[in-house]
Each structure stands twice: as C-alpha cells, then as structure tokens.
Amino acid sequence: MNNSLQSSKLVLLLAIALVLFLNTELDFLTAAGALDSDSKVYIVYLGERKHDDPELVTASHHQMLESLLQSKEDAQNSLIYSYQHGFSGFAALLTSSQAKKISEHPEVIHVIPNRIRKLKTTRAWDHLGLSPIPTSFSSLSSVKGLLHDTNLGSEAIIGVIDSGIWPESKAVNDQGLGPIPKRWRGKCEPGEQFNATIHCNNKLIGARYYLNGVVAAIGGKFNRTIIQDFQSTRDANGHGTHTATIAGGSFVPNVSYFGLAQGLVRGGAPRARIASYKACWNVMRDEGGGTDGRCTSADMWKAFDDAIHDGVDVLSVSIGGGIPEDSEVDKLDYIAAFHAVAKGITVVAAAGNEGPGAHTVDNVAPWLLTVAATTLDRSFPTKITLGNNQTLFAESLFTGPEISTGLAFLDSDSDDTVDVKGKTVLVFDSATPIAGKGVAAVILAQKPDDLLSRCNSVPCIFPDYEFGTEILKYIRTTRSPTVRITAATTLTGQPATTKVAAFSCRGPNSVSPAILKPDIAAPGVSILAAISPLNPEEQNGFGLLSGTSMSTPVVSGIIALLKSLHPKWSPAAVRSALVTTAWRTSPSGEPIFAEGSNKKLADPFDYGGGLVNPEKAAKPGLVYDMGIVDYIKYMCSAGYNDSSISRVLGKKTNCPIPKPSMLDINLPSITIPNLEKEVTLTRTVTNVGPIKSVYRAVIESPLGITLTVNPTTLVFKSAAKRVLTFSVKAKTSHKVNTGYFFGSLTWSDGVHDVIIPVSVKTTISM
C-alpha cells in the first residue's frame, strides 16, 4: 500500500473513531413527552396485506392507532414502523393497557412485545468441494461444476440481515460484474459515513438500516455511549461484513490472518449481488464492559418487509434469541420470515451457539432452513515445550515471536500476592482473573469448544484438560518451571477432520418436537472473511471468526448458486436438495463426530441431514417440496385457529377435520417424538431429475423400530406425473420408554441417493 493510501486510511479511521466516541444524544421522538413514560415497543401483526398500494396499508395503520390513542398527533409519534410490503402490521410505542386493548381489535391477529435478539458470533469452499477456483477473473474458463453452471451466481441477490457492511472492503469490489439485475427494486440509503453513490456498486446493490426499534428500547434517544455505531449501514461491529462476504464476497488473493489460513478468500457465490439490511447494532453490554451486536424484533421485521419488496433470492439471518420455549411469542417471532418464504425467498438462520446441550437449537420454524456448525479439515497447531523437554500440541492463533518464560498456575483461589508478571500462566477456568497481572501468555485448558481467540494483547493457547493436567503436574513437581511456546502453523487435511462444533446448538426441537432441527450443517469454525477495521480481531480488513453465524452464510452462498441454476425451485425444494444429498461422513470419508460433554458420532440432532454437499445438491433427483398448503397443515397441527390462519394468509382458510398430524408435514426428515405402538405417516416426492426414473426404497431402521414403506418402488413415467406419495409405518418393539434412536430412508435410482434422516423415541403409556 502506498503512503497516500495509508494516510487516507489513517485519516478515515481517526475520523470514525472520533465519531464513535462522541457522547452525543440525538432526539428520536420529536414529541416523546406526549407519550406515556411506561410506553414500550409492541409489534401489532395484521397478517397479509389488504391493499397492493403500500401507502394505503400504512394509512390503515395510522387510522387504527389514531382510533386507539384518540389523537392523530399521538398516533404519528407512537408509530415506529409500518410493515407494508411483505405483510401488514406495525410497531408502535404503547403502554401495556393500550397493547391489550388493541389486541382485541377484530383485525389484529397478535400483539407481540419487542424483543432483543443477538448476533451468533477460505478453506471452507475447498473443504466442501466447491472448487477448484481461479485466482482472478482472467481465468474463469477453468471453473467447473456448480460455479461454472451458474456463472458464479452472477444473477443471484443475497440479502443479509445483520450489523451492516464495510463498503470499502476488498471483498465488496465489483470487478468483472455486469449490470445490476433488472428485477432489483431495492435502494442504497445514505447515512453517517455512508455515501450511497460512492459506496454502493454492482456488488453491493442494497444498503438499508433500521434504528427505531433499538433506540426506543434504550429510552428513545440515540446515545453514543450505549450505541457505539454509525447511523447508517456502515458496520462498526464487523459481524455483518463477515457474514455478507462469506455468502457472496468477491475474490481477494493472498489473504491471511497474521500469517494463518493464507490463501484466496471468496464467498460461496463470488459474483452474487449483496443487499445489506442493518438491523443489529453495536450496543454496550449491561455488565462487564465491551459491546455486543443487538437486534430488536421491530427492526428485524422491517428488514424482512423491505427485503421482500426489494426482490432478494435468499435471506441470510445469523441472529437468534437464545434457547426457544414452547410459547406463543417464540412461535410468532418467525412470522415475518414466513411471509418471505411464502413469497419464494429462502430464509437461512443460525442454529445458535448455546450447545452442546439437547433442546438448545434456535430458529425452529419449519419454513426456516436452520444451520449447525462444523469444523474444517484445518487446524492451527501450536507447540508447547516444557522445561523438562516434554512436548505437547494445542491450538491457538498465536503467531509469534516465540515465547520463552517461567510457568505458573492460577485459579480463582490463587493468592493475589502470587507474582506472575512476565510468566506464562496455566488456568482451567476462563473466569480466572488475570487482568493487570502482566502475564506473558495464557494456557487455557478446557473442554473442547472449538473457539479460538487472540485474547486481545495476550497470546492464548488452548489445550484440552488432559494436556492441561500434564502441564499442571510438571508445574507442581518442578522448583522453577519454564515453558517455550512456538508460533502456530496452518495444517490442512489429516489428522484434522470434520466434527460438529461443541458450541453448535442441538435438537430436538423444543417448540415442535416432530420438526427436525437443525436442518443441515456447514463449516463455522475459524472462517476467514472480511471484517470491519474497527473490530479488534481484524488484520488488514479480514478476521477469523467462529459460530453458527459463519455456517449460516456458507449455506446462503450455496443457495444463491442453486437458485441461479433452478430459479423456480421453492424454498422447501432448496432445503430438500441440501438435506437429502448431504455428507454423513466428512468429504474425505471419515466419520463425523459431535464435540460435547462426551465425543460421539454425530446424529440428526447434531447436524440435521449432515454436512452440506453443494455439487450433489444441484442434482438431487427427488425433492420433498412444500407450499402454502403444507404450512397451513403445520399451523393447524400447532394449534393456530382458523381465524388467525386466514388473516396470516389474507384469505379464508379452515383447518381440516380431523386436525392434521404434524408427522405428515412434508419435510425431508421423519421425527417421531412419542411412538407408543405404531404409526403411519405420509410423504410426497417430486421428480426433478430424468423424466423416466425408477427409485427403490432402502431402509435403515432405528434400533428396535421396524419401518415399512409402501410402495417400495416409485416409478416416474412422464413429465406429467412427477409427483408421487408413499407411506411409512413405524412400529416399536421396545417395552419401556427410550431415548431417540436414529436411522434413514433412502430412495435410489442407481445414480441419485435421496436420503432422509429418521429419528424415533418410544413412549409407553402406563
């Protein structure tokens, strides 16, 4: 980089830093005093729009509020957002009594309190077989497979609801891209440090931001000591830049993280267009200092609403609300996403990072595609040599220079007078206080959690408990223990292999146990992608981050390619193609284990259908498709009444009698949470392969369960008869209650193996 560019960057960063730390307050509500101090934000959900004209939809929202508040001015001051494109509803400042009163209005389906949700925070594409790839646009003729067939996703539009984007990032360059697709209806909004004309291009084609919900949640004013962010789509946090460029980032050669993971960085669909919807903000934590990415339901719903209008093909949402409960609010939080799916937009969501316990998976609605996280076949081994010449290896992001120091042990009960200044300390608890002690490095022995960090300015090394115990034994048997730590290196291939990350949330689904979640898994550990230069973990505009936040855009990028190849596929067809073709082993054929309290072979509650396999997903043979009728069956089986469903859909709808079974929802999986004796369920498959095909059933029954498929052969004879239905009878031989046992059902024509996971738990009535 030449001196003028370096100077320009320095000036920019200094200006940004000054802006971020100014303790200024901007009024959010011009007449806040007219509103009750006990007012909070509520989302008033009205279902499908009654008018095609968005202005008429908004006018109806004003009228409803005016009738409630008995004042036109108060109605205008109360309204936070009008949801006018994908569905009808609004967010407004209301007291609890006003919220209760408006919930009784005949046109209102539900009133939902505004909730705070959190962000779920190179080698990936080689690992998944979406390669080889050239190092520049000049040699694209060598591209093969799915990337070749879709022109690297050049006509796809990826929407990302997150913390915004850093528009100067090299990964957002539009080199080699043609004109913006004509169907695009979105826009770039100007704002603080964001010039729509300069910062948007043929790659970054949309930039919107949503601040009203989070500002209302913190008291009605934009206070920079609380929200340390830009009032624009510019990303102060870095999370949004990272996720957007994982999904659709452009080629950037010779990138590394302090020398680690060096190579070509790109998104899954390198020529796809990106639309950034900033609904998450860099907010000061309540305790402990620092900031987190926080997103409110009101802001997110408006982002969904605009994305539906704008014409995105896929929405990547690396956001969650923690472990879900079987509550009406949890179910309703997914309704905005439902409207996107109903309009043909695949919504990809993070499974969450609260694993590895059971029932922790987030984003569990059947219209969402929920993604777990796996490791790559890549590690960063770090050599630890003790003073007795014993050598151990652990992982870290330590890049040198070599450390050679004394060695000490610290725990929460250690005497504060123990002098560890200049030494490397061994700890077994991340809460052990080391701040201000002047340590040279930290060796943090822990259960495997697959999360590596640089620990700010102090190098951190991460051995497991076994190696930590070996180090502790050495310390306690040596008068003056010493240690030498060598910089990490990058190792790809064996012995590093794919496993489900310890932090990745697990099933079964706590809201609807018959709906398998997560759906699929993808790499989400130490993923190298672009990041905001304001993030302390960045190096030259790139960073290594881990989480289901990272695995989610991996799948979003693949879906952008699939939608380019199969533009008429529904979101359910896309999910089916991914689930039924997924790897049940690593790409190299090794078993996939699940990290947790005890390492075990991964099962469907760890990774859904398995590890995503992009090339096979392009030609799945059969798909388990779903449409509005199937989602109606789900809503009926989940207990929604006719009136609510009718207003959600904008047309009169009656639930069938008897009520549909959730077991019959046409998912690419079978999950039976309470099998007493036997049960029969149905599935329907659509042939998307050769017109004349014959598929035969291959059954792998769960332990103690007999699966019977009827018919055992599916014969597709013509283009007019591409849809066939079959039944599956499950019968248990268990005499006592059991946990879940797992199997699979495969339809094979000799070329395509269409595999769905089967999960069954026996429950005996007493």
TrEMBL record:
One of the GO biological process terms: proteolysis
Location within or outside the cell: Secreted
GO CC annotations, alphabetized: extracellular region
Keywords annotated in UniProt: Autocatalytic cleavage, Glycoprotein, Hydrolase, Protease, Secreted, Serine protease, Signal, Zymogen
Active site residues of this protein: D162, H239, S549
Peptidase S8/S53 domain sequence ranges: 153-590
Domain (Inhibitor I9) ranges: 41-119
Principal subcellular localization: secreted
Span of domain Subtilisin-like protease fibronectin type-III: 664-760
First and last residue of the signal peptide: 1-21
Gene Ontology MF term list: serine-type endopeptidase activity
A Pfam family annotated for this UniProt entry: Inhibitor_I9
Top-rank lineage group of the source organism: Eukaryota
Alphabetical list of PANTHER family matching this protein: PROPROTEIN CONVERTASE SUBTILISIN/KEXIN
Similarity remark: Belongs to the peptidase S8 family.
Protein name in UniProt: Peptidase S8 propeptide/proteinase inhibitor I9
Source organism per UniProt: Arabidopsis thaliana x Arabidopsis arenosa
